[in-house]
Specification:
The chain contains 15 helices and 17 strands. The protein has 450 residues and is an alpha/beta fold. It has a nine-stranded mixed beta sheet, with helices on both faces. The chain has a three-stranded antiparallel beta sheet with strand order 12-13-14, covered by helices on one side. A three-stranded antiparallel beta sheet has the order 15-17-16. A hairpin with a 2-residue loop joins strand 16 (412-414) and strand 17. The protein starts with 5 loop residues before the first helix and ends in an 18-residue tail after the last helix. The relative contact order is 0.16.
């Protein structure tokens, strides 16, 4: 890491999977807006649908997701029953004229906490309720430790075309420190089962900055992804936020790599992936050359949403399940986090939207600039202003802020084009923050930049 970057690397900044970020959502925008916006979806418009399964059979200490251990299947069954009702509520709210599902994503938690039969029933119901386009992608995040042969069969029968495999690390000492024991043999067997079932697109999630983790550990995981011919790889830094994710208190802070070590691990992992043929995508994703994500990046069609980098062009995302976020042209709405409140709303026939935000023209302009920068590591401010119909000087404040970062080497400004050099890629979110007109520094709200 370059001298003087430490201050920027320790800043808490949003991940910018949306703009405005969830930190700007409030209770003034809720169910009435969600229903109005759903009804306004244009005839023939394709949909993305996200279904949240907030359960894991085992809880990993590093996890910051909204999930819990069910301690029996009854809680899962009750949640599943309400999920089915929510699907019908959204399908009714949207009306019959939209173009159907183009992307269906199951996340969590671990969707394979569901029984094979229940998973297939849920997928079939979603596709029937919203309508499924012929070439729709169905993607599922799985926990390799609990992915049974029967669940693989259920995914294949449901038409799943992509699976995200939670690898994180292969190092036994690190696995033990984070409560996620999964030998290499288990991972290899799971991937082979997926491909034998006809699910060939396998993504891998890797992490750096874990307790006791070394550069060699990160490189080993990257080379494993190449060896197993992963389609896409995400390489995320562990965010230690025990004030938010209470179970992270089980991690020994003294065993966590320091800031310089985290930077070196991230760089070494990225270099290993590129050396093995992966194409670097934005901040922390990598894809093999023929993957749709690589093609989208090459053709300037890469997007960013709540699942990270995507080739999904849909303007409408329907989020189903507690905590899920829906995106419409007019704004964002998030479902109740409290499952009892979420269930009560649905039982009452209401969309379970607890809070949200209405998009202003300024929000749309800044969102486009942030997405461009996050996706291609450069943004032409004048071009974005023209594209969004804004005044040429509408982002002058962002350029002025970026000039301060240019002096530190985090970006380069030529005319009104802001570029993040390769060596500063890990601080991309810090540069994107220059375009954030809503950002308010609040202690313990966001993860550190690196």
């Amino acid at each position: 890491m370059k001298q003087g970057w430490t201050t920027f690397a320790t800043r808490q900044v949003p991940r910018y999977t949306s703009y405005p970020t969830a930190a700007d959502f409030g209770p003034a925008v809720a169910e009435p807006e969600a229903r109005k916006w759903a009804r306004a979806v244009a005839p023939g418009e394709h949909l993305s649908v996200y279904i949240h399964v907030p359960f894991c059979e085992k809880l990993c200490f590093y996890c910051g997701c909204a999930t819990s251990v069910p301690n029996g299947y009854a809680r899962i069954g009750n949640y599943l029953e309400t999920l089915h009702k929510e699907i019908d509520l959204w399908a009714g709210a949207l009306g019959p004229d939209h173009g159907g599902i183009a992307h269906l994503h199951f996340g969590g938690g671990s969707p394979n906490a569901l029984s094979p039969e229940d998973f297939k029933g849920l997928a079939d119901h979603a596709c029937a309720a919203f309508g499924k386009r012929q070439n729709a992608e169905i993607a599922v995040e799985v926990d390799p430790r609990t992915m049974t042969p029967k669940f693989v069969e259920a995914m294949a029968a449901a038409g799943v075309s992509r699976v995200s495999f939670g690898v994180q690390t292969l190092a036994p000492k690190v696995q033990e420190a984070v409560g996620r024991i999964q030998p290499r043999e288990l991972l290899v067997d799971g991937i082979e089962r997926l491909r034998a079932s006809g699910i060939h697109a396998v993504n891998m999630d890797l992490m750096y900055g874990l307790p006791h983790q070394t550069i060699d550990d990160v490189v080993e995981a990257a080379e494993f992804a190449a060896e197993m011919a992963a389609s896409r790889v995400s390489l995320f830094g562990y965010a230690h936020v025990p004030w938010f994710a209470k179970h992270q208190a089980a991690i020994d802070e003294a065993a966590l790599p320091g800031l310089e070590a985290r930077f070196e691990q991230a760089e070494a992992g990225a270099e290993a992936l590129v050396r093995n043929g992966f194409h670097a995508i934005g901040l922390d994703h990598f894809a093999e050359a023929g993957d749709p994500l690589s093609r989208a990046e090459r053709h300037g069609k890469l997007r960013r949403n709540f699942q990270g980098y995507t080739d999904d062009p849909c303007q409408t995302l329907v989020g189903i399940g507690s905590t899920s976020i829906s995106q419409f042209r007019e704004g964002y709405v998030q479902n109740f986090k409290d499952r009892n409140a979420w269930r009560a709303a649905i039982e009452d026939g209401r969309l379970p939207s607890e809070r949200g935000v209405v998009l202003t023209d300024d929000d749309r302009l800044r969102a486009r600039a942030i997405e461009k920068l996050m996706c291609q590591l450069w943004v032409d401010v004048d071009e974005v202003c023209r594209e969004m119909g804004a005044h040429p000087g509408a982002l002058s404040d962002a350029l002025e802020t970026a000039r301060f970062l240019q002096a530190a080497g985090l970006c380069q400004i030529t005319g009104h084009v802001v570029t993040v050099p390769k060596e500063a890629r890990l601080l991309l979110r810090t540069v994107a923050q220059c375009f954030d007109g809503r950002f308010k520094p609040v202690e313990a709200r966001h993860a550190k930049a690196v």
